[in-house]
Amino acid sequence: MLRNVLEPGPLVVFLGHFIYLLPHYYLLNALILAGRDEAEWTLRNAVLRSQVASGLLEVLWSAYCPKGLPHGVCAAAAGLCALLQGLHTFLAFTASPEVYHSSLAFALQLTMLVLLIPIAQIGTNHTLQRRISPARYRILGWLTCVVLAVSVLLSPGFGSLPVALGCSVAPFVVMAGVLLSASCSLDGAAKLSEAEPSKSEARRGLDDLRTGPATAGLFVVLGCGFGTIGEALTDMAITLSIRRSLQAGQQDLALTNQLVICLSMTLAYISETMTGANSSSKKGTAFILAWAACQCVRVLALRHLDSESFGTLVLAGMVFVDKYTGPLGAAALDMALLQLLETSGPGPLSGGSEVEGSGRSARGIPATFLWTLRMTTSRMERPICQLVLLNTAGVRVELLSCVFTFLTFVGVVAIFGRHWLSGSAQREKDD
Questions:
Q1: What is the sign, positive or negative, of the torsion defined by CA atoms of 100, 378, 277, 348?
Q2: What is the pLDDT of residue 212?
Q3: Using one digit for the tens of pLDDT, what is the confidence trace for 49-62?
Q4: What is the DSSP string of 250-298?
Q5: 215 vs 73, 131, 222, CA distance in Å?
Q6: How many CB atoms lie within 10 A of CB 246?
Q7: Which stretches does DSSP call E strand in 314-404?
């Protein structure tokens, strides 16, 4: 597994998710504990707004350049990201409000995320080539952030400027090193592709992975319209409740949250990696059932979160079931969407050899664009939900969470059911 993570594709997924979560789990809490509440508010808004804006740009980029940029160029972009992220972290921890204001914070954060777009595409293309859910690598990134979050709550020294700078810059430095190494070994990769022509053809045909409008529409509705918004709404309501308690000088909820996340996501990682093939419909159905049931329990418990007598216990139970089933639900959704693309018609993604004769590939919608849209939307779900809850009063979180959860559950089960029925019909035909 470690060997896989050190490959460019999995490493980009792992570190990309770590970079996405780092402000929410570590930097913002470190600023609050350091007494820089105004800088925390500035950074929080800059992070949320830039994640939404860069997500839109990432989708446009995937449509314009589905094959991505060379690894060497991406390594240089990662180096620039390291410089920008280091400067931004330094200003957030040291600069006065007159210097570190919302416009500067947004410009620095957005520029860094825009440079990260072609790097993230390496992970997207790896997922489409392998047809394996990237959930396990995202879980690893999440666990790494949780370790930092627990550390800063237990020992304020972990929230100091030197540690914050190291945690902010290190992911980009590692990413740049691995991508530069991959770029320098192109000759060896070329020789390997001669010995393994099937992999070489898969790489060359990446821009030919396309699907029809009907399938693309279903993909967008399920993967981007419904997604895991139901989970995100409840998550952000919990996050803001923890933020209020932390600002009031109480660390019990925050510490309980991070410790339980660490335990539950470790179990989720074990479940995701040790229960058979990622394309298994039975595995995906079990995951989405567990996820939907968990969301119902969390919605019922949400109203008791601010209870002084047992609020911490309620939070621990909610976080444990969510962070165990949440990654599994996301993995089930990934499996269903990849299965939808795989069975949508002839072409490299479905393993067919008819694409050249059919001409369908040339007229279809690129799978790279669709998968980038899905990954971008999933990253935008929580920032958008948090911005809505921060700036809008009277949002009915419980009702909206239930509706979106139900729609996602029905869509995933329908795809797995269709795949099972088509497989049964094919087996009967063969018999």
A1: negative
A2: 84
A3: 898 888 888 888 88
A4: --HHHHHHHHHHHHHHHHHHHHHHSSS-TT-HHHHHHHHHHHHHHHHHH
A5: 33, 17, 11
A6: 20
A7: 365-366
Report the interhelical angle of 161-184 vs 8-22 (nearest 10°).
160
Q: How far apart are CA 215 and CA 227, in angstroms?
A: 16
CA distances from 250 to 21, 65, 243, 290, 302 (A): 22, 48, 10, 32, 19
User: What is residue 192's predicted lDDT score, i.e. its pLDDT?
Assistant: 40
Contacts of residue 343, defined as CB under 8 A and 6 or more positions apart, other chains included, come to 350, 419, 422
The rounded distance, in Å, linking the Cα atoms of 102 and 110 is 12
Say whether pTM exceeds 0.85.
no
Q: How does DSSP assign 52-67, residue by residue?
A: HHHHHHHHHHHHH-TT
Tokens of 373: 């849209």
Q: What are the tokens at 292?
A: 């939907």
Cα angle vertex 263, ends 387, 288, to 5°? 65
- Report how far residue 31's alpha carbon sits from residue 117's, in angstroms, rounded to the nearest whole number: 27
Mean of all residue pLDDT scores within the chain: 79
Average pLDDT over residues 113-123: 92
> What's the DSSP call for residue 303?
G
